[in-house]
Specification:
single chain; about 180 residues; mainly beta; Immunoglobulin-like; 4-stranded antiparallel sheet; FN3_dom
C-alpha cells in the first residue's frame, strides 16, 4: 500500500500509489531523477484523482529515485519515495548469416543471443511473392535450418527477436538456394 512501480521496461515504468487525495482535496507533485545524477530532477504535477502514472523516455539500465508528494489542503501526508531500475536496452539481432545453402535448404544463424529474448521467429518466403512460412526457435538458440525449399530461388529471411517484455525487433537477409540436380 505504498508508492511502487510495475510494467518496468528499458525506457519507463508505471507508478502506482494508494488513494490519499481526491480531485477536491489537492494534487500530487511527482519528482524523479537518476540516482547517479540527482541534479537532472524532473517534476510533474498529477491530479488528486489519479493513483497511477506512466513515466516514459527514461534511460535504460538506470536507477531512478522517485518521490510522490501529496499536496493536500486538508491533511499533511508525508512524501512517498521509491527506487526503480529500468531494464537493459533491447537490441535487435545485428547479424543474420546464411550458410550451407543447398537446392532445398539453407542454414540461418544470428547474433547476438540475449537473455531477454523469449524466442525467435524466422519468417521466410520466395522473392518475389508473398507466401511466407514461419519457424519458431527457442530464445537459447542462435541458428536453425530452413528446409523443403525450391531450388535456384531467392528467399527473404527475417529473424524477429521476441522479448520477454513483449517487444519485437527484426532483421532481414536474402538467401539463394542452389540449382537443383537435373531431373528434379
Amino acid at each position: 500500500n505504498r508508492l511502487h512501480a510495475t510494467d518496468v521496461t528499458s525506457s519507463g515504468f508505471r507508478l502506482l500509489w494508494p488513494k490519499l487525495l481526491s480531485q477536491e482535496t489537492g494534487y500530487y507533485t511527482l519528482e524523479y531523477a537518476p540516482t547517479a545524477d540527482l541534479a537532472r530532477k524532473r517534476t510533474q504535477q498529477v491530479s488528486g484523482a489519479h493513483t497511477s502514472l506512466v513515466l516514459s523516455g527514461l534511460a535504460p539500465e538506470t536507477t531512478y529515485e522517485v518521490a510522490l508528494i501529496p499536496e493536500s489542503n486538508v491533511h499533511y501526508f508525508p512524501p512517498q519515495t521509491t527506487r526503480v531500475t529500468t531494464l537493459a536496452e533491447e537490441i535487435s539481432p545485428v547479424q543474420v548469416l546464411i550458410s550451407e545453402s543447398g537446392p532445398r535448404s539453407f542454414h540461418v544463424s544470428w547474433a547476438p543471443v540475449l537473455d531477454s529474448v523469449l524466442s525467435y521467429q524466422i519468417l521466410y518466403g520466395p522473392l518475389p511473392g508473398n507466401s511466407v512460412k514461419v519457424l519458431e526457435v527457442d530464445g537459447r538458440h542462435n541458428s536453425t535450418v530452413v528446409e523443403h525449399l525450391a531450388p535456384n530461388t531467392t528467399y527473404l529471411v527475417t529473424v524477429t527477436a521476441i522479448y520477454r517484455s513483449g517487444k519485437e525487433k527484426s532483421l532481414s537477409a536474402k538467401a539463394c538456394t542452389q540449382e537443383g540436380e537435373r531431373g528434379e
